[in-house]
């Protein structure tokens, strides 16, 4: 079943490649519980079929980087980019795109959270395995307040400007 507006996102584990060690995070891949990450925060999230893919790299992620300050000004605490890739790939993509510190590059390596959301995309016939559908959402304390799911192969409703217009 696909998640919908008004639903609480499922808890699950996402991984992030941490560039600089802190008291709570070592350098390298660190695992986080979605419920803990989202608790008490307004999150703008978008999911892509894969890191370093054409639309994702040329349009989707760059749009959120460009509108970072405007999203924050509207009360967004964090921006998440989620893909069914490993945290090393997500970390490299974030470095390549200059996302560090502005967009959290979260890996759902085995697509478990994506499946729990009901937003998986089967690209086995194209040799790419199970991926995520392209979508965007606003979470308020872990509850979906806006959800924009793209039709197959499209990039029309999950862009940063659409989400910015929806955030209140």
Structure report:
With 168 residues, the chain is of the alpha+beta class. It has one domain (13-166): Glutaredoxin (3-Layer(aba) Sandwich), CATH 3.40.30.10. It contains six helices and nine strands; from the N terminus they run E-E-H-E-H-H-E-H-E-H-E-E-E-E-H. It has helices spanning 34-38, 54-66, 68-73, 87-97, 112-117, 160-166; strands at residues 13-18, 28-33, 42-48, 78-83, 104-107, 120-123, 129-132, 135-140, 143-149. The chain has a seven-stranded mixed beta sheet. The protein is globular and about 40 Å long. The model has no long low-confidence stretch (mean pLDDT 93). One of its GO terms (cellular component) is cytoplasm. This is Glutathione-dependent peroxiredoxin. Belongs to the peroxiredoxin family. Prx5 subfamily. Thiol-specific peroxidase that catalyzes the reduction of hydrogen peroxide and organic hydroperoxides to water and alcohols, respectively. Plays a role in cell protection against oxidative stress by detoxifying peroxides. GO terms for molecular function: thioredoxin peroxidase activity.
Secondary structure class reads alpha+beta
Indicate the CATH architecture: 3-Layer(aba) Sandwich
Kindly report the average pLDDT value. Answer: 93
Q: What is the global morphology? A: globular
Query: Which percent range fits the helix content?
Result: 25-40%
Order of helices and strands: EEHEHHEHEHEEEEH
* Largest β-sheet summary: 7 strands, mixed
Short structural description:
The chain has 168 residues and is α+β, with helices and mostly antiparallel strands. 29% of the residues lie in helices and 30% in strands. InterPro entries: PRX5-like, Redoxin, Thioredoxin-like_sf, Thioredoxin_domain.
């Amino acid at each position: 079943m696909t998640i919908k507006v008004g639903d609480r996102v499922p808890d699950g584990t996402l991984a992030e490649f941490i560039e600089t060690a802190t008291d709570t995070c070592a350098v390298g891949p660190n695992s986080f519980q979605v419920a803990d990450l989202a608790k008490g925060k307004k999150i703008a999230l978008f999911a892509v079929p894969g890191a370093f893919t054409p639309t994702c790299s040329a349009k989707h992620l760059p749009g959120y980087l460009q509108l970072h300050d405007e999203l924050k000004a509207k009360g967004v605490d964090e921006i998440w980019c989620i893909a069914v890739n490993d945290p090393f790939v997500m970390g490299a993509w974030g470095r390549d795109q200059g996302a560090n510190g502005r967009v959290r590059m979260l890996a759902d390596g085995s697509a478990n959270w994506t499946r729990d959301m009901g937003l998986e995309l089967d690209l086995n016939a194209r040799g790419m395995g199970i991926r995520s559908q392209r979508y965007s959402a606003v979470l308020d304390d872990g509850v979906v307040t806006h959800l924009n799911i793209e039709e197959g192969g499209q990039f029309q409703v999950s862009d940063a400007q659409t989400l910015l217009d929806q955030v209140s």
